[in-house]
User: Fold this.
Amino acid sequence: MVFMINIFQPALGEDELAAVRDVFQSNWIGMGQYVDEFCKAFATHLNRSPNHFLATTSCSEGIFLSAYLFGFDSSSEIIAPAISFVAVGNTIISSGARLVLCDVDRFTCNATAKFIAEKITSKTKAVILNHYGGVPCNMDPIIELCKAHDIVVIEDSACAIKSYYKGRACGTIGDMGVWSFGPTKTICTGDGGMIYLKAEDQIPVARERLYHGLPARKNSGTDSASSGDKQWWEIRINRFGLRATMNNIAGALGVVQLTKLNDFIERRRAIFDLYSSELSHLDWLRLPPKLKEECSSSYYFFHVQLTKRDELAAFLLDNGIYSTFRYWPLHKIKAFGIRGANLPNSEYISQHTLNLPLHQSLTDAEVGRVIDAVKRFGKLRY
Ligand SMILES: Cc1ncc(COP(=O)(O)O)c(C=O)c1O
Assistant:
């Protein structure tokens, strides 16, 4: 029997089960010490102070939080690359701000300073970048541009957990960064997200916003009383808030997964290299551009570009291989109401790009099956 090859897949096993068992035994599965531990470990792996980090339920929640923290409203315009995750559009539109899409590089699928600059007006408040597939955007010119125009830089680093630009970790270069630990991401906590805020004093505000607006406690805490509170059931809120806090199960999974991150990335790199060397001679197929020397990648996507994209996707599916295209451009999502978009590269990408299976649990034999299927397709159709 031939098994379907997944495009993305979590790598969870006995170590993670043991960590979850610990949480069960602690009798407190809500937010608490395991979440704190994960936050600290995450900050440490980036060589940063934990005071800038906050865990949440998903990366999308972090993106939504950006609108609150930086005050998006009907007077603001927010720039995002057309090739962005849907949460970016939802965040901007639902805040009342205007969603302004910029084009991206045709091959890296990343926004550039040039494309962002074309969209800046006196109303531009922020730009939400996406490091596509873990390849860092060219940050220096973007940061310089945004500084000159007093524009907030938010980095959607959902796919860029181990990506560096000139020695700086993606997600910590701008004013805010967000990572995802969802079911398809390199490290998986079921669902989960991490937030980085450059301004430390935004952390208590963010913490309150993500937990009913309740005054932030130093320790992310449990539902327990402290001896100083006489009537600990009284409620005071500092702001209107949500309920978007990571729980201890996710936190415990994150702690364990983080210890394996380097190995995961190493395996992903090996698969990426195998695809690159085996497919590079196919003149009908464009491979991802070579990584710039000053960058390192999380190797989250392996995207190829070709004229018969849809046919290749169908052929792979018929051969038990699941592929997809990320990300359907925001200007093509009707509900976002973008009219007259002139985004030729994003348009090109949406018609020609396919993401091949890439995750750390793929065996060499499975990678070989994908490579073989792509080559067979070429012989049949080109
Ligand atoms: C680039 C990007 N941003 C944001 C997200 C949202 O992550 P989450 O599922 O944790 O909300 C994803 C998830 O696929 C993503 O790929």
About this structure: The first strand starts at residue 53 and ends at 56. The chain is about 35% helix and 15% strand.
